[in-house]
Amino acid sequence: MSSFPGFSQLLSFTEHGSWPPLLLVHGSMVTGEMFNPVIDHLATKHRVIVPDLRGHGRSRHLQPPYTAGQLAADLTRLLDHLGIDSTAVLGYSQGGAIAQQLVLDHPRRCDRLVLSCTYAFNMATPREKLEGHLLPVLVHLLGMQRIARLVVSQGTKQLGNERAVWLAGLMADQDRTLMVSAWRETMAFDSRPRLGEIACPTLIVAGSNDQAVPIRHTTMLHDRACLGDVLPRLTRSGDTARQSGTRAAGSGQDGGWPVPGADESVTVARFATGNAREALAAAIRRSLTRPGSAPPFEQHL
Q1: In angstroms, rounded to a whole number, what is the distance separating the alpha carbons of residues 131 and 7?
Q2: d(CA 97, CA 186)
Q3: For residue range 263-301, what is the model confidence (pLDDT) as tens digits?
Q4: Number of domains in the chain
Q5: What is the distance, to the nearest Å, from the Cα of residue 218 to the centroid of all Cα atoms in its chain?
């Protein structure tokens, strides 16, 4: 692993493994450390680049704005610094929004895209609007430590205690004022009018039981990009990844649809652990490295 401390306008980042490159974009109110559980799996086949976004973690010295356009521009500057013309990009949650902005504003810089537990527009329902406007108030009133414990206890109930404490620690370490500013830009993000412009092979990963980013956001991503019908999702406990469209070779377990190149359905969770985490990482690796031309989008529910 190599790391690079932040200076001037360059994002702080770490590197793991060797070519081809894979850029990981973290979610809101955390840092690139959120990918630690899967980095070793991904780094076996990729040069994994993990930045802290502007205002987060070791990049908190970079001042606003925290718009999606600015954060995407920061990523292109980092790629320039590393001498990388084009890379695969994986964005998680709000990082998926930034990944969308990157491929829309700088399409030549992204050759494959993975959108994980993310959205095109996160203020689509009255509940989302209420929660979106309430969160900055709670952050100001409670502070980052208490809001981190609240978010983790309510939004990631699948986690074991050790992982929950770790995740809450990542959130609690962020700057309260900067996170409120960043969150307001999160509320403003809306890629719906431009989703049809995404031309690179794209994998969408979603948790069917995800409460923070419900499955309908994946459906919205799929439909707005004019990708055809959405397969009915499984009704079983746990979160399942499966393919929409042409069925892959091999047969899935429990009635699931297999990931391309896989011989089993893949169980995932918002912060997956154990074998599920390894299976998810393996599915992403296959999507990023399989030969031939992939369809523009594959949806995994």
Answers
A1: 35
A2: 8
A3: 222 223 333 344 556 666 666 777 776 654 444 444 444
A4: 1
A5: 12
Of the candidates 202, 195, 199, 210, the one whose C-alpha atom is nearest the C-alpha of residue 245 is: 202
Determine, yes or no, domain membership for 224: yes
CA distance readout (Å), 93 to 114, 229, 291? 11, 23, 27
Q: Is 63 buried (19+), middle (13-18) or exposed (0-12) by CB count in 10 A?
A: exposed
Q: Is residue 10 part of a domain?
A: yes
Alpha helices in 189-228 (DSSP H): 215-224
In a domain, 157, yes or no: no
Q: Write the CA distances from 108 to 8, 24, 33, 234, 291, integer angstroms.
A: 25, 17, 27, 36, 19
* pLDDT > 50? residue 119: yes
Omega of the bond leading into 20 within 30 degrees of 0 (cis)? yes
User: What token pair was written down for 266?
Assistant: 């893949």
**pTM of whole model > 0.90?**
no
10 phi/psi in degrees, rounded to 5: -90, 135
Q: What is the largest CA-CA distance in the chain?
A: 53
**Is 172 a member of any domain?**
no
- According to the model, what pLDDT value does residue 48 have? 96
Element (H, E) at 9: none
Domain housing 246: 2-122+189-300
CA angle 189, 180, 187 (to 5 degrees): 20
Most confidently modeled of 108-112, 139-143, 269-273? 108-112
Closest by CA position to 198, among listed 113, 84, 293: 113
The answer to whether 125 and 190 have CB atoms below 8 angstroms apart is no
What tokens appear for 252 in the block?
Answer: 């899935």
Q: Which residue has the higher pLDDT, 186 or 215?
A: 186
